[in-house]
Amino acid sequence: MLERSFTVDVLKVVAAQMIVWHHFSAYGPMGDTMNLMWPHLMAWLYEHARVAVQVFLVVGGYLAAQSVMNKPIQQPFIHIAKRYLRLAPFYVLALSLITWAVDISRPTIHESWLPNEPTALQFLAHTLLIHDVFGFEALSSGVWYVAVDFQLYASLILLCYLLQSPRGKWLSVVIALLCVASMWLFNRMRELDIWAIYFFAAYGLGVLAAWSKRTNFDRAVFAFTALMGLGALWLEFRSRLCLALVTAVWLVIKPKGMVHWTPMKRVVHRLSNSAYVLFLTHFGVIVLFSDMWNKSHFYDPYTAFALTGFAWLCSVGLGLFLHEKAEVPIHHWVSHHSKQLFLRFNH
Predict the structure, then answer these.
(1) Is 2 helix (H, G, I), strand (E, B) or coil?
(2) pLDDT by residue (tens digit) across 192-235?
(3) Which of 206, 241, 311, 318 is deepest in the core (most CB within 10 A)?
(4) Residue 292 burial (CB < 10 Å; 0-12/13-18/19+)?
(5) Are the CB atoms for 174 and 159 separated by under 8 Å?
């Protein structure tokens, strides 16, 4: 395994923890209580920790580009369907668990951040990853990312299918142009933040970072895009774009090498694999701990900090458990039973 794989693991793990702590600062009475004693820390977690999602966007583009690099796309909709089946089954399970947690906690939590009881149509829209497009209230804190990730992957696959060639130069150029257009224009339009083009600045950087090792031409395309990114920061500084650029450049310049697996590196690898599950389920933990806090009538900031730390550990542990005991078996089952169906479409 290449050293860069461990680099990706570290990026995913750190970004995931930042996002979890951002949500602990944004939702629930424990965050409000901690804010009384540590306002600057809580403000930083709320305002800045959330930009860690840019790391996931870059890494998502990087890994997706690696999966299609030098591989002709003959059936794009099969690739897209496989991606949906990779994301959706556990995503639906997580939404069901969170809906249950919200339902039992509703009598004690009377805050606007708690989702309302979902309708059947709202849950169906979430299942199809179109809830934001049709203006439905989100049932959890991480569902928007799953929908955007699916849009971005589908866009990449369609571009690979339409522009594939032996050397792939046109494909790299078009990806770079879309990336630059996002950095300079679409990423500055907040009303577009439910569409792939808004996030293509980060995702496209990840794609071009993965392809930059193929040829000198691809390296030049990435360098050009990165320079245009610096220009976009000069036009309007955005910390999210700055972090995306730094992440992509790091993925390009990190030298190859073999991983010397240590117990700590194996732990990081497991945490990286469970990052998707953690991302989807930790909101439910926040809800349940907020319910417990309200029922216990706690008020001390130190108690809030200790319970938040414990809730964070529970979130990480639940993510590991559900990844290994639910997500992986579900994925294997779905892959096995959909294999024959996809083979029929290939003929």
Answers:
(1) strand
(2) 999 999 999 999 999 999 999 888 999 999 999 999 999 999 99
(3) 206
(4) middle
(5) yes
The residue assigned the tokens 């990480």 is 316
Q: How far apart are CA 124 and CA 303, in angstroms?
A: 39
Give the separation between CA 345 and CA 296, rounded to whole angstroms.
Answer: 57
Please provide residue 2's backbone torsions phi and psi, each rounded to the nearest 5 degrees.
-75, 150
Give φ, ψ of 298 to 5 degrees. Answer: -75, 160
Task: Quote the crossing angle between the two packed helices 196-211 and 239-253, to the nearest 10°.
Answer: 20
- 28 C-beta neighbours (distance < 10 Å), count: 26
Distance CA 70, CA 115 (A): 44
Q: Are 91 and 146 in contact (CB under 8 A)?
A: yes
Q: Give residue limits of the domains in the chain.
A: 3-346
Helix (H) or strand (E) holding 71: none
Distance of CA 190 to the CA centre of its chain: 18
Q: What angle do CA 27, 112, 53 make, to 5 degrees?
A: 40
Please count the other Cβ atoms lying within 10 Å of the Cβ belonging to residue 196.
Answer: 21
Is the C-alpha dihedral spanning 125, 129, 133, 139 positive or negative?
Answer: positive
Please, what is the Cα angle at 110 between 276 and 306, to 5 degrees? 55
To the question of pTM greater than 0.70 for the whole model, the response is: yes
Tell me how long the chain is. Answer: 347
Q: Which amino acid is at 14?
A: V
Q: Is the dihedral of CA 299, 48, 249, 143 positive or negative?
A: positive
DSSP 253-319: HSPP-B----HHHHHHHHHHHTHHHHHHHHHHHHHHHHHHHHHHT---HHHHHHHHHHHHHHHHHHH
Dihedral Cα 253, 259, 263, 265, nearest 10 deg: 20
